[in-house]
From TrEMBL:
Name assigned to this protein: TIGR04282 family arsenosugar biosynthesis glycosyltransferase
Protein source organism: Pontibacter aquaedesilientis
Residues making up the signal peptide according to the UniProt record: none
Length: 200
């Protein structure tokens, strides 16, 4: 069977006061928006040359002629529901469209690289699930070959419990899996200082 790979990117529309709200409490909404735009550009730069199909899922509305080139990225609005429901429906749609390896990432991880995303797709050749744990207890990447809805149910999103609870479900379901390197998501001022010290 021919492999059909899809990378899904969940992003927020970059609007003042609506992005990086925890970070904004420390640095102000203008600086938080500027940092988020840096993160979006980084995520674009490490993904646009990857040899897979790509879709950007926007939080509010599809933006045309923005930093995501229309020629390289499909564009959709995130489905309704909490984060788990949104991701589950996005994976469900991808598999219904015939994709055999599907990976989702956000736009909060300045340490993420093209190599790590490529590694995720490589791991899916021999594992059912791949997950990239974040140092704050969440995850920055999740990939699978079939939909496993349980991974999105009953999770305390945006807490330190997300990764351990997800891993518990993966092991409980006896899914073959592998972990990518632990990386830092940028949500608070301390994350920024630790993982991105050269940001001016």
């Amino acid at each position: 069977m021919t492999e059909k790979k899809l990378l899904m990117l969940f992003v927020r529309n970059p609007e003042l006061g609506k992005v990086k709200t925890r970070l904004a409490a420390s640095v102000g909404p203008e600086t938080a928006l500027d940092i988020y735009l840096h993160l979006l550009r980084h995520t674009r730069d490490i993904t646009q040359e990857l040899p897979v199909d790509k879709v950007v899922y926007y939080s509010e509305k599809v933006e045309q002629q923005d930093l995501w080139p229309d020629a390289r990225y499909l564009k959709k609005v995130q489905p309704p529901g909490d984060l788990g429901e949104k991701m589950k429906l996005a994976f469900e749609t991808a598999f219904a469209e015939g994709y055999t390896s599907v990976v989702i990432i956000g736009s909060d991880c300045h340490q993420l690289t093209s190599d790590i995303v490529n590694q995720a797709f490589d791991e899916l050749k021999t594992h059912e699930v791949v997950i990239g744990p974040a140092l704050d207890g969440g995850y920055y990447l999740l990939g699978m070959r079939h939909l496993h809805p349980e991974l999105f149910h009953n999770k305390r999103w945006s807490t330190e419990h997300v990764f351990p609870d997800t891993l518990y479900d993966i092991e409980r379901l006896h899914l073959s899996h592998t972990l990518l390197p632990y990386l830092s998501d940028i949500d608070k001022l301390e994350d920024l200082q630790e993982s991105w010290p050269d940001l001016n």
